[in-house]
Amino acid sequence: MGTMKRRSVPTSEELAIWRAHIETFEIVRARIEARLHQDSQLSSGDYRVLLALSEADGKSMRSSELAAHIQWERSRLSGQLGRMERRGLLRREPCAEDARGANVVLTDEGARAFRASTLPHLRAVKEVFVDAFAPEQLAQLGEATGAMRSHLNLDARP
Amino acid sequence: MGTMKRRSVPTSEELAIWRAHIETFEIVRARIEARLHQDSQLSSGDYRVLLALSEADGKSMRSSELAAHIQWERSRLSGQLGRMERRGLLRREPCAEDARGANVVLTDEGARAFRASTLPHLRAVKEVFVDAFAPEQLAQLGEATGAMRSHLNLDARP
DNA sequence: TCAATGTGATTGACACGTGAATCATGCGGC
DNA sequence: GCCGCATGATTCACGTGTCAATCACATTGA
């Protein structure tokens, strides 16, 4: 049997697919974020935080719990919360059980803003992302995503 | 025939595919960029600019020409060039034909840095992206990307 | 008790992105 | 020539991301 040498670099076709993929879906993300911003004055970060808080018991969470839940750096969350607090979307209050910690609480205004943003946002996802594909193709895309996740060993147990 | 009402929002499966896709490939991008940075001390922005300049006639380009080529906002490019110039990767010199313009010139150091970065970068693309998929699957991903590009009307002639 | 260490959270320095404003130069028509 | 507008490029203010440093409080063990 001949010696097999595995290519260590992509073929030009593979490289083209990589570049097209990353560039294209960067644009998709930007478009959907732009719609969110126009429709609801929310950034994707805002939305992510509001989504998590909306689903939380008592519409509130410990800051570090929130960071873990959405898988953000703590300092990133800190800045985000600061901006959102300035805009009145949430409140941070000292934590009774642990004086170091902070409870992040969704305000009524934050809840309202999130509620109002949901439908337009989902519509944007449908129009910009989902509608680009035939059903079969979307399923394949889901499978490819799954293959990537297992390649990267995401979804690994804690 | 019954009245057909087209869903205006994604099904939960479609939404899950969207979220998984965007999250997963965000991580892919971050990993490949991290490798580039570790291997070569270059950001993806640096790489993009160096790639364009390397391919340019005379290793130099007018600033606006460069911006158009890589499809960047002019102000974004301005900042990027400033940082890269400070690091000695390129030079900006006044333009003879048009005193408003600037010529961006790749320095020897910039050329060297780019050359050294190429192979490790391609390896990273292969290992992190390409190797995640079966060949058939990668082709499907390419087709899905194409579908998205035509959905967004990218690739439209100027 | 209290020093050592761990943990929750913020801060600071910087890289990077966008859009609006600015500034200088080119250029067409009078 | 020169006024007005177009164009090349940078600057500014701000949002957003990272990492390292910091600070306050908690916990633990001699």
Return the domain count of chain A: 1
Determine the most extensive contact between two protein chains: A-B, 46 and 46 residues
Helical amount among residues of chain A, as a percent range? 55-70%
Poorly predicted parts of chain A: none
Oligomer classification: homodimer
- The fourth-level CATH homologous superfamily of chain A is Winged helix-like DNA-binding domain superfamily/Winged helix DNA-binding domain
> Helix/strand-derived class of chain A?
mainly alpha
Major β-sheet strand ordering of chain A: 1-3-2
Largest sheet of chain A: 3 strands, antiparallel
Number of strands of chain A: 3
The shape of chain A, in one word, is: extended
What is the first-to-last residue Cα distance of chain A? 43 Å
Protein name (chains A, B): MarR family transcriptional regulator
Domain HTH marR-type (chains A, B): 14-150
Organism (chains A, B): Occultella gossypii
InterPro entries (chains A, B): HTH_MarR-typ, MarR/SlyA-like, WH-like_DNA-bd_sf, WH_DNA-bd_sf
